[in-house]
Amino acid sequence: MTTPLELDGSSAGGQFLRTALAVSVLENEPVRLEHVRGDRSTPGLGHQHLAVLETMAELCDADVSGNEHGAETIEFEPGLEGGTDPAGRQRLEGGSYAVDIGTAGSATLLCNALLPLATILESPLSVTVTGGTDVAWSPPLDYLRYVTLPLCRRFGLEATCEVDRRGFYPDGGGEVTLRLAPSSLERIDLLERGSLEGLRLYSTESESLADRDVAYRQAEGALERLERDPDLELTERCETTAASPSPGSALVLRVDHGTGVAGFSALGERGKPAERVGEDAADAANRFLEGSAPVDRHMADQLLVFLALAGGRVRVPAVTDHVETRCDLLEAFGVDVGLEREAETTVVSVAPSLDVGQ
Question: Where does the record place the RNA 3'-terminal phosphate cyclase domain (predicted)?
C-alpha cells in the first residue's frame, strides 16, 4: 500500500470522514484516518458513516481496513482502474449501485459526499440509497433537490435526485436515486447577492399526519413569520403528503436572487407545533436577508470541495465549525485556502488545487 496521508478526526465529526473519502477518490490518494468522529459522544463509524465508506470503496475498488461499525481508525486506498483523461489522470467508471444504510441514517449526506465525483466520471453514475431522507443533523431532501443541486448546476455539475419514498426518524426506509453525469466545473465566484427574485416554499408531511394539516400549518407558520422584502414574491408553494414508514415532516424555504439561491429548513418533532417548524425556518431566512452573503451558512461548507476543484471565491455569512474543519482538511491535501474576514462576512478564496481534469 502506498504511504497514506495521515489525518486526525479527533476534533471533527462525520463531515470530516465524508470529505476525506471524497477527496481521496478525486486525488486517487490513500488516507489513514484516526480518531474517526472523535468529538462525538459515540465516536467511530456509525451506520451512515460506514455506508459512505463502503459505497466509496465499491465505486473505486478501494482497499479498506477498519470498515466495521464503531471503528475509530480506517485506511482507504482508492483503486481507480478506469480510463484516463488526456493528461493521464485516472477516471472513475460509472454504473448503477444500490446502498441500504439500514437505519434512518442520512441519505442526503451520502449523496452530498458523492457529488464531486461527477468531475472524474467516465460515464453516468446512478446510486439508489435507502435510509433517512429528512432526519436531524443533515440537509432535508428538498434542500438537496431545490438548493444544493440547482446552485451546483449553475457551475457545471450535472446531477439530479429522484425521490421514491420519504424516510423520517426512527424507521428511515426512504429511497432516493442520485444520478451523476461526467461534469466539468466552471470557476465559482459568489461574492455579491443579486437582487431578490423570489421565494419558494416546500412543506412535506407523512401520510400519518395529513389529517392534522401539518404541511399546510408549517407553510402558514413560515409565511407569517417571514419578514419579507417587498421585492421578495412567493413564486412557488408546494405542500406534499408522502408515504413513509415513520411519521414526520419537513419544511424548506428557498430564496432566489440574481447570483444564486439560499436555503433554510426545519424538521418536525414530537410535541412541536407545526407552525413552530415553519417559524424556525423563517427565522433562519430572516437572518440571511438581514446580511449580504449570497449563500446560506450550510451551503458555505458544502461548496468548499467544488472550490478546490474549480477555484473561486465565495462570501459566506459565518465561518462555522464545519467550514473551519473542511478548510483544514483541504489544506492537509495541499489545497491553498484563504479566509478574508470582514465585519459581518468572510470571503473564502481557493485556487483550483485538486489534480483532476477540467
Answer: 12-333
Nearest to 113 by CA among 31, 226, 17: 17
For residue 172, pLDDT over 60 is answered with: yes
Question: Looking at residues 172-193, what average pLDDT do you find?
Answer: 97
Backbone angles phi, psi at 186, to 5 degrees: -95, 160
Q: In CATH, which of 3.90.25.10, 3.65.10.20, 3.40.50.620, 3.30.420.40 is domain 85-184?
A: 3.65.10.20
| pLDDT reported for residue 239 | 98
Residue 302 known to bind ligand:
yes
- Return the amino acid letter for 219: A
pTM (2 d.p.): 0.95
Percent residues over pLDDT 70 in the chain: 96
Q: What is the per-residue pLDDT across 282-304, written as a single tens digit (0 to 9) for each? A: 999 999 999 999 999 999 999 99
Contact predicate 81/101, CB 8 Å: no
Grid cell listed for 242: 408522502
Question: Would the annotation count 301 as a binding residue?
Answer: yes
SS (H, E, C) 20-61: HHHHHHHHCCCEEEECCCCCCCCCCCCHHHHHHHHHHHHHHC
Which CATH number does 193-290 carry?
A: 3.30.360.20
Sheet holding 346-350, edge to edge: 188-190, 312-316, 346-350, 337-341
pLDDT of residue 281: 98
- Residues tagged active-site: 322
Residue 85 marked as a ligand binder: no
Q: Dihedral angle at the C-alpha atoms of 230, 204, 302, 18, nearest 10 degrees?
A: 170
Residue intervals of the chain classified under CATH 3.30.360.20 are: 193-290
Which amino acid, residue 224?
E
> 49 a known binding residue?
no
> What's domain 292-358's architecture?
2-Layer Sandwich (3.30)
Please give the Cα distance from 281 to 299 (Å, whole number).
Answer: 15
